[in-house]
User: Which sequence fits this backbone?
């Protein structure tokens, strides 16, 4: 009888926490993933501890148009300078990160919830479900995204909730396509057949048997999509369709700097660097994860 | 012919792969000399390194593989010091390779002609006309009917057997000195395989080229090779002439391999299988001393687990073995083994009565609209009738496309029958989809699946997956009782309790298949359908799983429907056999009735096609021509008439044969007269029958 060999047993009996730690350790194999993770973690940590940092109030007018690292008359140093209203750029960028990360994360999560529901249903049930959901998805995808955003935000108003709504409308169909494709592949496996032949309900099969096995590619895609959503939120801010003032918003900060470009370049460069570093972080993390998952 | 320089010489060849986990030594100390015109077999289970040897000979190991030690000479020239240009001249031209999957070895976007003509045009600078003539020549050489049509076809337009013939032709076109065949028939049906094997034998005899034939199937090696090397865990453990290795094997692994394969010429009472205990060690965790010692019942502590074991000469004919106890072991004494006890069948559990399943194909094309008839039918199951009793094992045998899996789907309620009845405990379930069956009806009918890598959900621990079935089909709700039932089921399939916490990827193929069996028996089923449950497993593991399945089924008095294409396993496991061809049951009866004459001509050909790893058994050669007809457009008259060597013209191609009773439940679908049937000689002759 082929009894199990001891060395395989060593890998067993690990708790979920240990397993999660082991998968994070896997990231060390890809320098790209580590760099991405470092960039993302930097912004996440900075955003989380922002209220505890010795920063100026981001909305408090101090001395306008101070360049970075220049000592003010009162002796204070504004590390990243101040903007046209004299607000501290460092505080504004850091508090802006809170806004971007919060709404990008929330919007992506909601888009995923809808995309997964639609994709699993279309892929597993097929038939009319697939026809109708795929048609709806194609109609939404055929809209120019910008037009979709502008319509939703101008009609419903510039609030965080409406940004989530706009991102969901724009991203859910794409997520649905990915999930549907994965499900079409996974549903041919014997363990799905086994679940069907013991009379499991379609809902159980979709949530318990199918979805967990699609998680690999979805995690990679979610990283990429967090990056896109960050860009989207910055873009909406730039267009004046972003979060209501006066809270700092990276996109709006660039828009405010535009007429003053030659005079106070740091006002545009600093939020632009913030956006690119965060988006780059998400993209590198996604690339690295894909690289690791493809390696054997 | 008598060139003294060997075609190929490997001396102490060692190959490693360099991965995340460090250096993986895949092949160690590999010695092999191949002379001109010689056919050498390399046999072993998956992971033994046999394919790595083939790639090493081609010096084609990929980015992370390398030859780390030893010598490799081709016609006396050192291949290890060759430049990429030298190698390019040898690969394909002097050494040609044929792979396992013909479909993926051909370029799907190029016509066969272009792919065949490439070699002479680009290598030898032949003109297109010369190349085409040469290509037609080799296609005729590999016995492809209508070479002109094949030349203009794309790979998907020809069958798998034809694709493999095209690849052999492609290998022959540059008249290589050495042909490497890596499991060339594993992806093909047995009757197609028999044709390819016959072709390979003829070609090597005619062209006098040397061959290395890699296979896991001892029977194929016996049919094709002069010498054989048995590999285990990266090393050759025994090498010699086929007659020596097959009849006087000296290594316990070789012996175990032979004892664990079922033969179609003998049953479980005459020759019970003895599986090899344990499993193959991981390449970087091989034991000290002999690699096989931990699984070997003859291993002696202190001798077998000390130093690396060298090859030892047994006789002057090149029979060598890697075993320190080669001249001490008495295999005969170990052979004593009790047979499986006979179980008497009970009342009828399953009755299949003229069941028919057609799939409608909607043709929405404009042409079909004009013709009027828009629907065509795939006649997957035409007329299936048989019964199965309690505690009985009924095998459904046939090649791919015969409709055996469709039948299983109807039975399980995943598809609905078009006509006829399928009665389980007297109740018709043929048109009752799974969702409408009562929980009891679902629980008494369970399935064991084919692919061990697909049968368990990779995201959940195996214990949880069994527990789900216990809860769902056993109606159990108490957590403690579920846990104890899971442990009970694990011990039923002879796995330790800690397996329950593992993920499927931490288990071997055989262990996964055991979990699949445990899951099927969790709801105390009355009928279990096993769809090729061992075909993806290695032979030594196969024997253990077959034995286990038989044991549990007999112990629980479950009816087992065993779907298989492997007649050796069928003979071993089943009480009765149903032979299917193109949606029809062409023959059915007890296992003895089906495996002895009179046969249906298809059964006769199927039996003859099975390679047998026993030199004492001789068999009649019947190689079927043609391909399996499409179920979309079956031939008129008898379904088998187009390929039948015993066809009666004017009768078989016009009328459907009657179902005839040959006595004692032996039924056959054939026009042949009683005199012909009664005079049929057995396919197998020899000691074992």
Assistant:
């Amino acid at each position: 009888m082929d009894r199990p060999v001891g060395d395989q047993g060593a890998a067993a009996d690990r708790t979920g926490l240990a397993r999660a730690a082991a998968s994070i350790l896997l990231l060390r194999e890809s320098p790209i993933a580590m760099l991405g993770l470092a960039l993302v973690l930097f912004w996440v940590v900075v955003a989380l501890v922002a209220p505890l940092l010795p920063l100026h109030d981001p909305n408090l007018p101090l001395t306008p148009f101070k360049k970075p690292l220049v000592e003010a008359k009162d002796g204070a140093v504004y590390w990243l300078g101040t903007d046209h209203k004299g607000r501290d750029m460092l505080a504004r960028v850091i508090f802006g990160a809170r806004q971007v990360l919060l709404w990008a994360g929330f919007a992506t999560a909601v888009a995923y919830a809808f995309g997964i529901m639609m994709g699993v249903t279309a892929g597993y049930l097929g038939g009319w479900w697939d026809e109708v959901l795929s048609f709806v998805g194609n109609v939404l995808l055929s809209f120019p995204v910008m037009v979709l955003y502008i319509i939703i935000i101008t009609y419903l108003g510039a609030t965080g909730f409406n940004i989530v709504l706009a991102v969901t409308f724009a991203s859910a169909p794409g997520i649905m396509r990915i999930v549907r494709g994965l499900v079409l592949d996974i549903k041919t496996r014997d363990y799905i057949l086994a679940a069907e032949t013991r009379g499991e309900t379609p809902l159980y099969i979709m949530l318990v048997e199918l979805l967990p096995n699609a998680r690999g590619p979805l995690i990679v895609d979610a990283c990429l999509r967090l990056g896109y959503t960050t860009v989207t939120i910055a873009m909406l801010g730039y267009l004046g369709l972003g979060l209501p003032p006066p809270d700092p918003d990276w996109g709006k900060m660039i828009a405010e700097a535009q007429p003053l470009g030659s005079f106070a370049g740091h006002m545009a460069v600093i939020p632009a660097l913030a956006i690119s570093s965060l988006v780059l972080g998400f993209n590198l993390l996604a690339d690295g994860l894909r690289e690791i998952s493809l390696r054997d | 012919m008598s060139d003294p320089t060997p075609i190929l010489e490997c001396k102490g060849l060692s190959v490693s792969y360099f991965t995340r986990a460090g250096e993986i030594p895949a092949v160690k100390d590999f010695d092999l000399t191949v002379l001109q015109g010689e056919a050498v077999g390399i046999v072993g289970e998956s992971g033994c390194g046999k394919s790595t040897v083939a790639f090493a000979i081609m010096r084609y190991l990929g980015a992370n593989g390398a030859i780390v030690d030893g010598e490799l000479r081709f016609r006396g020239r050192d291949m290890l010091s060759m430049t990429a240009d030298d190698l390019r001249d040898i690969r394909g031209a002097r050494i040609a390779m044929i792979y396992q999957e013909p479909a993926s070895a051909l370029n799907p976007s190029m016509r066969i002609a272009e792919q065949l003509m490439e070699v002479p045009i680009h290598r030898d600078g032949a003109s297109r006309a010369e190349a085409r003539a040469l290509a037609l020549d080799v296609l005729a050489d590999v016995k492809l009917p209508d070479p002109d049509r094949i030349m203009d076809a794309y790979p998907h337009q020809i069958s798998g057997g034809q694709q493999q013939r095209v690849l052999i032709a492609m290998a022959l076109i540059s008249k290589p000195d050495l042909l490497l065949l890596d499991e060339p028939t594993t992806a093909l049906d047995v009757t197609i395989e028999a044709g390819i094997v016959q072709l390979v034998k003829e070609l090597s005899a005619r062209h006098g080229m040397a061959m290395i034939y890699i296979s896991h199937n001892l029977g194929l090696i016996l049919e094709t090779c002069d010498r054989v090397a048995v590999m285990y865990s990266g090393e050759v453990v025994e090498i010699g002439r086929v007659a020596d290795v097959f009849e006087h094997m000296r290594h316990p692994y070789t012996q175990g391999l032979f004892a664990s394969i079922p033969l179609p010429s003998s049953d479980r009472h005459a020759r019970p299988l003895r599986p090899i205990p344990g499993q193959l060690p991981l390449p970087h965790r091989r034991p000290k001393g002999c690699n096989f010692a931990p699984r070997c019942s003859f291993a002696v502590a202190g001798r077998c687990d000390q130093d690396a074991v060298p090859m030892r000469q047994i006789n002057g004919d090149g029979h060598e073995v890697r075993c320190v106890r080669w001249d001490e072991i008495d295999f005969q004494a170990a052979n004593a083994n009790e047979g499986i006890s006979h179980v008497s069948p009970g009342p009828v559990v399953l009755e299949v009565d003229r069941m028919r399943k057609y799939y409608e194909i909607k043709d929405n094309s404009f042409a079909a609209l004009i013709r009027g008839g828009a629907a065509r039918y795939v006649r997957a199951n035409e007329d299936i009738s048989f019964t199965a009793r309690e505690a009985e094992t009924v095998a459904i045998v046939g090649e791919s496309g015969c409709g055996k899996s469709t039948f299983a789907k109807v039975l399980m309620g995943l598809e609905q029958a078009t006509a006829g009845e399928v009665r389980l405990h007297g109740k018709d379930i043929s048109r009752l989809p799974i969702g409408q069956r009562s929980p009891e009806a679902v629980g008494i009918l369970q399935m064991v699946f084919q692919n061990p890598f697909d049968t368990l959900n990779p995201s959940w621990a195996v214990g949880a997956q069994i527990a789900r079935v216990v809860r769902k089909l056993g109606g159990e709700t108490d957590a403690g009782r579920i846990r104890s039932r899971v442990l009970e089921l694990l011990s039923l399939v002879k796995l330790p309790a800690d397996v329950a916490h593992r993920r499927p990827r931490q288990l071997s193929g055989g262990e996964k298949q055991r979990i699949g069996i445990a899951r099927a028996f969790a709801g105390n089923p009355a009928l279990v359908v096993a769809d090729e449950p061992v075909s993806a497993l290695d032979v030594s593991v196969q024997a253990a799983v077959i034995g286990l399945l038989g044991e549990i089924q007999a112990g629980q008095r479950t009816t087992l429907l065993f779907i298989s294409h492997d007649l050796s396993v069928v003979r071993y496991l089943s009480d009765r056999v149903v032979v299917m061809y193109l949606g029809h049951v062409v023959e059915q009866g007890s296992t003895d009735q089906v495996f002895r004459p009179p046969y249906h001509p298809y059964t006769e050909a199927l039996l003859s096609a099975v390679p047998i790893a026993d030199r004492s058994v001789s068999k009649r050669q019947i190689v079927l021509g043609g391909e399996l007809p499409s179920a979309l457009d079956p031939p008129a008259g008898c379904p088998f008439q187009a390929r039948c060597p015993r066809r009666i013209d004017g009768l078989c191609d016009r009328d459907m044969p009657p179902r005839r009773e040959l006595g004692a439940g032996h039924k056959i679908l054939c026009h042949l007269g009683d005199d012909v049937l009664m005079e049929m000689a057995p396919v197998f002759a020899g000691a074992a029958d």
Remarks:
- The longest strand of chain A covers residues 70-71.
- Residues 16-56+88-295 of chain A form a domain with the MetI-like fold fold (CATH 1.10.3720.10).
- Chain A has one domain: 16-56+88-295.
